[in-house]
Specification:
about 475 residues; alpha/beta; Alkaline Phosphatase, subunit A; 3 domains; 9-stranded mixed sheet; two-stranded antiparallel sheet; 13 helices; globular
């Protein structure tokens, strides 16, 4: 231990240098310390893995908030109005159905909710979303989404990483790798109350990308948002300067080990993680404390209502994190939308929990001047069948579902693409997850074909060998 400590002291301040600066007076020492701290901070911003990086071209968006509806919301009960489904309720599907994952589905099942048109755009929204319906002129609906996997695990991985069969970096990791973070004292990618099933941490991992680009979870499924905190972020027992000294010594040991062994991604990741954790002590506690938010803001997000309080708090935290420079924030309404039965009861409850918060997020971002350069995305891993499963349920349907996007360079008030007359297949201007990923990167100023990372002998990218930018939704 003494050998390492002496090595550390010698590397940082040799004895002759100590005598020299001491003879110049302690005022000079203090000034050197201040200037050195500023220089060190500048170097961290310039050279750290989360340092801001230039995009490939001028971006429309600077940050992303992804509102993930885990389980697969039913598009034909939310945003994809199908009059023929109501007319032909109880009849057989008049064409061949695709393969489904769970069990046999039966005849057509009309939506138990009424649809109406809203706003100048005339977008159709069901009675499930009375608050969100007021925001339709601010959002762009993609009604022709589709994916390749009908199982939750594969579909979640495809949505989050672009691959439903291999462990790959998540889209938040790719975005942070490509652009860095605008706040060097916080992770570039944060996921609030993420799922622990259907791929679990693989949905927000950096996989073979360097560790600093992994998503940092705050809480997890089953933990109330009010109790979700970044753990061990405050240390009231050890003064900050002593912590810094302890960390410097540990990092000295780590770097000596790195010099001895050569490149070691795991060790390099630990070095970066320790530095970020130290910096987070000055930023994270304040960001997680919402006591400074006005009563009007808290009420806007539904924090005054036990039904909307939990997801509302997640959405409010997403705004606070995005506002302070976190590049990619995901909030998850976790695993609630999988209604193989009890569609009427459970979809209604799910919508009540998220309707006011997602509307509030759009309103709040717009009021603060953040919506124009914040891309908000809402959706799940697939849709549901227009045919019945049992008496009151719908099966998985990756062939057709709806996403909506707001801000960040998309056309507001647009309804893009379409499904067939019953909502079983996307048929007009189909958008695969690969296309969605390519478009998200494009809005952030990144060419999905150029954003690559060499691993195992070849270049990888989020979209692999697929993906086309959906030009029709760009503002």
């Amino acid at each position: 231990m003494n050998r390492h400590w002496n090595s550390y002291l010698n590397k940082t301040l040799p004895r002759r240098e100590l005598l020299r600066v001491s003879s110049a007076g302690f005022g000079a020492v203090a000034l050197a310390g201040l200037l050195g701290g500023e220089l060190q901070a500048s170097e961290t911003r310039a050279s750290g893995p989360l340092a801001v990086k230039p995009p490939h071209f001028r971006p429309r968006a600077r940050r992303v908030i992804f509102l993930f509806m885990h389980g697969g919301p039913s598009h034909v009960d939310t945003f994809d109005y199908k009059p023929l489904l109501r007319r032909d309720h109880g009849k057989p599907l008049p064409f061949k159905r695709p393969k489904v994952v769970s069990s046999e589905t039966f005849n057509l099942l009309k939506s138990p909710w009424e649809f109406k048109q809203y706003g100048q755009s005339g977008a159709w929204v069901s009675d499930l979303f009375p608050e969100f319906s007021k925001q339709v002129d601010n959002v762009c609906f993609i009604r022709s989404m589709w994916g390749s996997n009908s199982r939750h695990g594969g579909a979640l991985l495809e949505l989050h990483t672009g691959s439903d069969t291999f462990v790959r970096p998540s889209m938040g990791s790719w975005i942070t790798y490509g652009l860095g973070s605008e706040n060097q004292s916080m992770p570039g990618y944060i996921t609030i109350c993420p799922t622990q099933s259907h791929g679990g941490a693989n949905n927000y991992s950096s996989a073979f990308l360097p560790a600093p680009y992994a998503g940092t979870p705050i809480g997890a499924v089953g933990i109330k948002a009010k109790d979700a905190r970044i753990p061990y972020i405050a240390n009231s027992q050890t003064p900050r300067d002593i912590q810094r000294m302890e960390l410097d010594f540990a990092q000295c040991l780590n770097r000596e080990q790195l010099e001895a062994t050569g490149p070691d991604a795991a060790l390099e990741g630990r070095i970066e993680a320790l530095e970020l954790a130290f910096r987070m002590q000055s930023e994270a506690p304040g960001l997680q404390d919402i006591s400074s938010e006005s009563e009007a803001t808290r009420k806007l997000y539904g924090l005054d209502n036990r039904i909307t309080e939990d997801f509302g708090r997640q959405c409010l935290m997403a705004r606070r994190l995005s506002e302070r420079g976190v590049r990619f924030v995901q909030v998850s309404h976790t695993y609630k939308w999988d209604q193989h039965a009890d569609l009427l009861r459970d979809h209604a409850q799910n919508a009540r929990e998220v309707d006011r918060p997602i509307s509030a997020l759009i309103v709040d971002l717009k009021a603060r001047g953040l919506l124009d350069d914040t891309l908000v995305i809402w959706g799940g891993e697939f849709g549901r069948t227009p045919t019945a499963q049992g008496s009151d349920g719908r099966d998985h349907n990756p062939e057709a579902f709806t996403y909506w996007l707001a801000g960040g360079g998309v056309k507001p008030g647009l309804q893009y693409g379409a499904t067939d007359d019953y909502g079983y297949y996307s048929v007009d201007r189909k958008v695969h997850f690969h296309d969605l990923h390519a478009t998200i990167l494009h809005l952030l100023g990144l060419d999905h074909k150029r954003l690559t990372y060499k691993y195992a002998g070849r270049d990888f990218r989020l979209t692999d060998v697929h993906g086309e930018v959906v030009e029709g939704i760009l503002a």
